[in-house]
């Protein structure tokens, strides 16, 4: 019987560290490359930010110049000798805006969303300060279900927007219709 004993007489045992050192060196090189890429991206971002700041500065300068020009023109229009011209210009602009609304298009678009048993009693388009068109309508029906269906059709249509039911009147002896007053945003462009 032979006994094989391995005895290491060195003061420190032998370790196979070379693969670990090579892998560590590879990871270190990868991290250095990643650091270089991040530094490059950071510098590019800094340059983009400088370009953006310069563009914003140019736009702010242009805005200040336009505001000064607007103030100068407004002061000219506010002079007492120009008030008649200003009032006439405002009046003509309002007329042109109202003339820009197509009644034919309004009725064609309303026809696409109104059920057959809802009667359009009156419609009045108005233009808001943001140049949006709002229709103030009075509709009537024998019952409330067709009007509710019309409201859902209006809100689901891309031609119309938010709808608000303002009031309703029940039928009377002389008028057998339920009457509903509502407003709806309209997407017709001026």
Q: Strand order, biggest sheet?
A: 1-2-4-3
SS summary, helix count: 4
Query: Care to count the β-strands?
Result: 4
**What is the CA-CA span between the terminal residues?**
109 Å
Task: Provide tags for this entry.
alpha+beta, Alpha-Beta Plaits, 2 domains, four-stranded antiparallel beta sheet, 4 strands, 53% helix, elongated
Sequence-ordered SSE layout with sheet pairings:
Elements: H1 18-77, H2 83-99, H3 103-113, E1 118-127, E2 133-141, H4 144-156, E3 160-169, E4 178-186
Antiparallel strand pairs: 1-2, 2-4, 3-4
Descriptive overview:
The protein has 190 residues and is an alpha+beta fold. It has 2 domains: 16-78; 101-186, Alpha-Beta Plaits, CATH 3.30.70. The chain has helices spanning 18-77, 83-99, 103-113, 144-156; strands at residues 118-127, 133-141, 160-169, 178-186. It has a 4-stranded antiparallel sheet, with helices on one face. A hairpin with an 8-residue loop joins strand 3 and strand 4. The longest helix is centred in the first third of the chain and has 60 residues, at 18-77. The protein starts with 17 loop residues before the first helix and ends with a strand.
């Amino acid at each position: 019987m032979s006994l094989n004993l391995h005895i290491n007489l060195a003061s420190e045992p032998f370790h196979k560290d070379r693969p670990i050192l090579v892998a560590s060196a590879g990871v270190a090189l990868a991290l250095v490359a990643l650091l270089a890429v991040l530094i490059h991206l950071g510098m590019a971002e800094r340059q983009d930010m400088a370009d953006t700041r310069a563009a914003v500065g140019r736009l702010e300068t242009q805005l200040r110049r336009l505001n000064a020009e607007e103030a100068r023109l407004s002061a000219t229009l506010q002079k007492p000798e120009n008030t008649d011209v200003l009032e006439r210009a405002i009046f003509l602009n309002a007329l042109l805006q109202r003339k820009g609304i197509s009644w034919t298009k309004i009725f064609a678009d309303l026809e696409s969303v109104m059920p057959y048993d809802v009667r359009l009693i009156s419609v009045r388009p108005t233009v808001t300060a943001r140049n949006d068109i709002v229709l103030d309508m009075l509709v009537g029906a024998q019952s409330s279900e067709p009007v509710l269906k019309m409201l859902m059709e209006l809100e689901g249509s891309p031609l119309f927007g938010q709808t608000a039911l303002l009031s309703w009147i029940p039928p009377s002896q002389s008028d057998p219709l339920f009457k509903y007053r509502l407003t709806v945003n309209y997407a017709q462009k001026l």
